[in-house]
Amino acid sequence: MDFDSERIFYSDQSLRAPPPKFSDPFAPIPAADENGDPNSAAEEAANRKYEQEKMLRTNTISANGEIEYSLSTVQRNFKEFIRNYQTNSVFIYRDALLQSVRRGKNCLSISLSHLNEYDPMLLSLVMETPTSVMPVFEAGALDALKTFQLTSPTSLDDPDSEAPQLTVLPTDIHITLSAPHLKPVDLRKITSTHVNKLIKTPGIVISATRIRSKARQVEIMCKGCSAHKKLKITDPYGTVKLPGRCPEGGAEADCGMSPYMVMPDECVYTDTQSLKLQEAPEMVPTGEMPRNILLAVDRNLVDKAKPGMRVSIIGIASLYRQNTGRKSQNNNVKQLYINVVGIQFENLGEGGGVGNTSFTPKEEEAFIALSRRRDIYQILTNSIAPSIQGDYTKDIKKAIACQLMGGAAKKLPDGMRLRGDINLLLLGDPSTAKSQFLKFVEKVAPVGVYTSGKGSSAAGLTASVIKDSRGEFYLEGGAMVLADGGIVCIDEFDKMRPADRVAIHEAMEQQTISIAKAGITTVLNSRTSVLAAANPIFGRYDDLRSAGENIDLMTTILSRFDLIFIVRDIRDEERDKAICRHVMGVHINAGDAAAGNVNQEEDDDDETVAEKAGRVAEQGGKLDIKTFKKFVQYVRSRCSPRLSEEASEVLASQYVKIRDDVRKRCSENGGDTAQVVPITVRQLEALVRLSESLAKMRLAAEVAAEDIAEALRLFRVATMAASETDSNNGQDLLAAANGPNRDDYEKAEKFLQSRVAIGTTVNKQRLVEEAVGMGQNANIIARVLRVFCKKGEFLEKSSGRTLKRVK
Where is the MCM C-terminal AAA(+) ATPase domain (predicted)? Predict the structure, then answer.
């Protein structure tokens, strides 16, 4: 900070209040009035004592309960702060105040670090007694504004010029505070010791009411003598109490009891709004409900924060009495709320991660060294759910690693936004660790929200409009709004009602949620990835049925998933033995792992994260959950790779080839082009996002050729494999059968071809009973009949009760 020669610095000594000297209120009180009435003299003595105490309270302020400071001196000191504080020879607050007033905002944001640099005692006062100091600061800002030249020199010389000029000063200046370096207080740790103190707390805005007009200054008039009086209201949820008697009316003119009436047209109003702040999902302890607190914002801070936004609130912890509509047994218990004096927004980073995440220099150095390893892709894959093993899980883990990194979001010149988040769907048999993958991702993701499809509704996932006790409607965000910048894990996705699944279509592609309910029309951000797990419609995946018969999901929502994995529980002896050995090992080593986790939690700090990341960067191995999570945050906030011309040409040619292969396969199967798992332009964008996520792992600025090759491989083993099952329709079952089952299938096939002649119609139940009587397996006969129906050799009639052989 620069200091000019004429700057006046008010120290702590100048802020200390001198002994109060008031003449009129402390004058000697006579024993009787002029008429000799001792009662009037006693009443005057009581009134004068009240005025004495009031003047002492309103002209001094106590800091730390010991030293008293003069409010007029604090006001004068803050005025000089606005006038004289400068950085790089620029009077930042003087210019900001003039610019704000000329624009009609009448608002000035003050940094607490600048205030501490100018005078630490001013910072101490605003931290300890913000309720008393903030009005003084606003009065000091108004005094400073009066000393400035509000009209430019050109406007003085030429009255007809269009230069901005002010002829009427504003009546007040709204002072807001910013404190980027102030230590935040967790929402659940706010206690009675923070009441009437300035605090900073982070969280997510989950609801917002409509903007209301509240009286800040009430004008009242006596009905007897027409005397006017002004009453100020400082409490956002408080009301004014009208005086019981009129002090203007003397002995001759008694105005009676309750003589005052409110003059609504002469009151001064201000805009107010109520918000609800909730803990961030990653800050909620396991097994506990997230807590929330009420926020009161006014004037220039209204309509700034929408549901779903991550903010850090700077405000005054206060109390209010909640009106429940009935008499309370204990009037001393009040509700806690925060009177907001500043809002700091946490925007998404360049790569789609939550912004304002701090990293130490050692962490950044360790993460950069980790990203330069040639096997970083394999390290991240092995670090995902290490307790889950199997050949079928390798590609799923690689896809989840890509989802955690995410692609690069893009904003086009016309305002359109292309999402960078990757959506995954795990569809398959029970007991294949789908839910365990979801639970792990919830812990590792920067912002993770886990929910079940059966217990979720459309309003719970997107947003809802709720009616409060006053009869007014306000907006409250759902799971996909709260997970903005993270991942939503939806288990039992197939158990959701179809109407609820349709509600998240917009959130999965456009990444916004549009609301038009109860007179509230708005758009909320939902920049989140979706990791969903579902079971087939029959519980297990049936190879003899098409993908459309196994997947009870519409094509519109399947096309929004970048990768779709068909997870099957294949009965193989060697595979079962390997799984048994791994599961037994997990149970045997569970005790040692629990002891290691306890020791790990005891040594839990930022330096430990840097050391662990550095050790993995040097020696290899696996990342623990906390280090993995911090690395994901670093990558998502610092890296945003782009495609090169060569990479874009390769992707375009490969996408055209994939579409051509799908078209040929459909023509070979009878010309049916309708597929449950479609291959559309959305899948081309999915390939782009997968390539960018692979480049993010190396913190590369450009997508390489190996990234495109791996993205195409993942797409083929996931979505393309699911699409091919739709086109095969179980026709290759007989050819794929091996071992003793193959002979049974061949016998069943020969029996049906010899028993049913071309053009004849038979009863299906009698045909199966006849085959069983000849030693055939009923299940195999039923499966072979379904295959023949898929091939078109048999035609079902009478709701499947009869069969006709057509070829």
Answer: 376-583
Q: Is 369 exposed, middle or buried (0-12, 13-18, 19+ CB in 10 A)?
A: middle
Closest CA to 274 of 510, 521, 473, 104: 473
Amino acid in the structure at residue 482: L
Residues 6+ apart with CB under 8 A from 127: 197, 198
Helix/strand/coil (H, E, C) string of 399-446? Answer: HHHHHHHCCCCEECCCCCEECCCCCEEEEECCCCCHHHHHHHHHHHCC
pLDDT grade for 392, boundaries at 50, 70 and 90: confident
Concatenating the DSSP letter of every residue in 169-213 gives --S--EEEEE-TTSPP--GGG--GGGTTSEEEEEEEEEEEPPPEE
Beta strand 107-111 with 174-178: parallel, antiparallel or unpaired? parallel
Max distance between CA atoms of the chain, in angstroms, equals: 132
Residues 6+ apart with CB under 8 A from 392: 432, 567, 568
pLDDT greater at residue 227 or residue 378: 378
Give the residue among 465, 469, 468 at the shortest CA–CA distance from 478.
465
Answer whether 634's CB lies under 8 Å from 613's CB.
no
- Arithmetic mean of pLDDT, 275-282: 82
pLDDT band at 540 (very low <50, low <70, confident <90, very high): confident
In one letter, which amino acid is 96? Answer: A
Q: Whats the size of the chain, residue-wise?
A: 807
Structural contact between residues 566 and 722, judged by C-beta atoms closer than 8 angstroms: yes
Q: Are strands 292-298 and 212-222 parallel, antiparallel or unpaired?
A: unpaired
Are residues 626 and 604 in contact, defined by beta-carbon separation less than 8 angstroms? yes
Q: Which two tokens stand for residue 377?
A: 């892709």
Our measurement of the distance from residue 2's CA atom to the centroid of its chain's CA atoms, rounded to an integer in Å, reads 40
The tokens for 24 are 């009129």
Averaged pLDDT for residues 704-724:
83
Tens of pLDDT, residues 199-258: 899 888 888 888 888 888 888 888 777 778 888 887 777 777 788 777 765 544 567 777
The encoded tokens of residue 565 equal 């994995």
Structure tokens at 661: 């292969």
Residue 296 burial (CB count, 10 A): 21
Q: Six-digit token pair at 113?
A: 């670090």
Give tens-digit pLDDT for 118-164. Answer: 888 888 888 888 888 888 888 888 888 888 755 444 443 444 444 44
User: Taking Cα atoms as reference points, which of 440, 479, 472, 436 lies closest to residue 456?
Assistant: 479
More reliable by pLDDT, 337 or 246: 337
Are 635 and 446 in contact by the 8 Å Cβ rule? The answer is no
Element containing residue 552 per DSSP (H, E): none
CA dihedral 536, 539, 543, 548 (to 10 degrees): -30
In the chain, the percentage of residues whose pLDDT exceeds 90 is 0
Of the candidates 744, 651, 753, the one whose C-alpha atom is nearest the C-alpha of residue 704 is 651
**Rounded distance, CA 412 to CA 667, Å?**
38
Q: Which residue has the tokens 């896809």?
A: 399
Calpha distance 139→117 (Å, rounded):
21
127-161: b (≥16 Cβ within 10 Å) or e = bbbbebbbbbbbbbbbbbbeeeebeeeeeeeeeee
pLDDT at position 658, please?
Answer: 84
* Amino acid of residue 339: N
Could you report the per-residue pLDDT of 306-333, keeping only the tens digit for each? 877 788 889 988 887 766 555 555 566 6
Of residues 507, 513, 493, 511, the one with CA closest to residue 554: 493
Between residues 93 and 466, the one the model is more confident about: 93
Strands 487-491 and 448-452: parallel
Contact residues for 83 (Cβ-Cβ < 8 A; gap 6+)? 91, 94, 144, 147
Q: pLDDT for 485-538, tens place per residue?
A: 788 888 888 887 777 777 788 888 887 877 777 667 777 778 888 898 888 876
Name the DSSP class of 19.
Answer: P
